[in-house]
Amino acid sequence: MIVLRPIIYYYVEAPLAAVIYVCLVQYLQVLVFFFYIFSGILSALGNLLSQILEARKNARNGGPVTEIDTAGAARYAIYG
User: Fold this and answer.
1) Are 40 and 77 in contact (CB under 8 A)?
2) Cα separation, 76 vs 66, whole angstroms
3) Could you tell me if residue 15 is inside a domain?
4) Fewest C-beta atoms under 10 Å: which of 4, 30, 46, 48?
């Protein structure tokens, strides 16, 4: 059976390679976590901006102006 190891094992000693590998894995996990957080924030801000622009357009055209739906923005933040 062939065991595939990260390339880093072939260039540094095993204990140091293990530490580097663990740090790399943790870094990538944190990177993905922050991607999820920023994606949710940007989705919520985009939703709020579109609601504000729609309300301004309706106010200019004399249509009914609805209130900003903050619960909708929260849903976008959670699922974004």
Assistant:
1) yes
2) 19
3) no
4) 4
73 occurs within a structural domain: yes
Alpha-helical runs (H) found in 1-80: 14-60, 70-79
Decide if 70 contacts 33 (C-beta within 8 A): no
User: What are the tens digits of pLDDT across the range 33-70?
Assistant: 999 999 999 999 999 999 999 999 999 998 888 888 88
pTM equals 0.65
4 phi/psi in degrees, rounded to 5 = -90, 125
The tokens 């065991």 sit on which residue?
Answer: 3
Residue 47 maps to a domain: yes
DSSP symbol at 12: S
Scanning the structure block, which residue is given the tokens 């106010």?
59
**Domain-located, residue 78:** yes
Count of structural domains, the chain? 1
Range of the domain at 58: 32-80
